[in-house]
TrEMBL record:
Residues 53-166 form the BPL/LPL catalytic domain. Pfam families: BPL_C (PF02237), BPL_LplA_LipB (PF03099). One of its GO terms (molecular function) is biotin--[biotin carboxyl-carrier protein] ligase activity. This is biotin--[biotin carboxyl-carrier protein] ligase. The lineage of its organism: Bacteria, Pseudomonadati, Pseudomonadota, Betaproteobacteria, Burkholderiales. It catalyses: biotin + L-lysyl-[protein] + ATP = N(6)-biotinyl-L-lysyl-[protein] + AMP + diphosphate + H(+). It comes from the Bacteria.
Amino acid sequence: MHFRFDSASLQASLRLAPHVRLELSCVEETGSTNADLLERARHGRLPDGDAGALSVLIARQQRAGRGRAGRTWQADPGAALLMSLGTTRRLHAGLIGALPLAVGAVAASALQQLGANVMLKWPNDLLLVPAAPEHAERVGKLGGVLVETHALAGDQLGIVVGIGVNGSLPQTALTPGGLPPAALCEAAACTAPAAAVTAALVEALADLLVQPDLPGTIHTLVLQRYPALDYARGRPVQMIQGGAVVLDGIADGIDSDGALRVRSAHGMRRFVQGDCSLRFGGQT
Ligand SMILES: O=C(O)CCCC[C@@H]1SC[C@@H]2NC(=O)N[C@@H]21
């Protein structure tokens, strides 16, 4: 699966609600699509999401792709969808932690509709899960979501939603959380071409970001859609903060603010930051 587009043909293939207006650019190479759109946010050049407007930037290659928690995100040229969507909205700071989960839920649902069995791991991982239940533990990291924001004048926020999805397997070995990488080309039931994958994700994420009631939509996605997509729920996990294991327990789901609940012998603990590593057969 190879990702390479020109803006005009991608734009022509999109089915968007009539009020949605996209400024779409597809580039061969950039540093980071998230960094580019955040720069636009800093200069007041992201469009108005209340009016249904968004910027979408897709790159075939990134020189300095960004992952969560200051990590880098690497992908071979054309091997992954590398995309950011940017807009300005009014969003209470208390909901920023829940937004990546809502984005993940929307992206996972869009990919499921294309036949890939995609689930989620807190806070931002897209997982590819084998369809056969007896192989459900042969899960891999398909991609990730990186939401970055920039406070603007008034109570407006520049919101940049980045997503990376592997079409082909990357060269890298393990990913954060100890999972092997996975790619859409491995999902037997997903025969959609790269253009269809891209269009489905642009349509779904644009629709989310211009929702008139964005806070209510985030809330509903996190509380109602995320649970069915939550791969970790009920499984043994190890919580890692600052490189150290801080808790062994059982993932117990997500709160409305995006916090992960983990149950252990010491009771229930909420996490708003850190990594959640799955433990299979007692191993990390
Ligand atoms: O798993 C993660 O830590 C999040 C990865 C997010 C990667 C995407 S690729 C497009 C966008 N631009 C970036 O620099 N990062 C995000």
